[in-house]
Amino acid sequence: HVAPAAEAEPAAEPLPPLATDDEAKEALKVFKKAYKATGYKGDEKTAMRDRAMRRLAEVQHADVADRLFKLTRDRNEDIRTLAVMYLGELRAIPGYAGRYVEQVAKKQATDPVILMFAIEAISNLEYRGALPLLRELLRHEDEGVRKVVILNVGDMKELRMFEDLLELAKDLKIDQGWK
Fold this sequence. Notes:
By secondary structure, the chain is mainly α. It has nine helices and no strands. It is globular.
C-alpha cells in the first residue's frame, strides 16, 4: 500500500507591488470623484462608495492607507467598517496599515462589529505588532469577538499566543464545560 500524499498547504498569495507616488496620487484623484457618488442616495450611495474604496485599496501606498484611515471616522457606520476592511487589503505595507487598524480597534473597543473587522484585517496583513491587542481581545465581553480572535490567531499561525489560547481553553472547560 502506498500512503496518500499529504495535502500541501496552498502557497501564500504573493504580495501586491508597491505603488509609486504618482500612481497613488492618480488613484486618490479618481477615488475622490468616485467617492462622491453623485446622483446616488442611501444604500446605492454606500455601494458606490464601497466600490470606490475597493478600487483605491488595490493601490498599495501609504497615502492610500492615510485616506482609508480618515474614513474610519466617517459618520456612516458602514463606511467606517468598510474602511477598516480595506485597510486590511494593503498587504504590501502591513506595518503602516496595521498600526492604523490597531488604532481603530483600540478607539472602537466597545463596537464588536468594528473589532471583528479589525481582527480580520490584522490577520490579513499578518501584522504582528497587534499581538498585545489580540491578547486583550481574547478576554473581550463579546463571544463573537473572542471567536474571531481565536480563528485569526490560528490563521496567522502565531505560536507566541499558544499559551494564551491554552489558558482560555482551560478557563472555558472549568467555567462552562465543553460544548
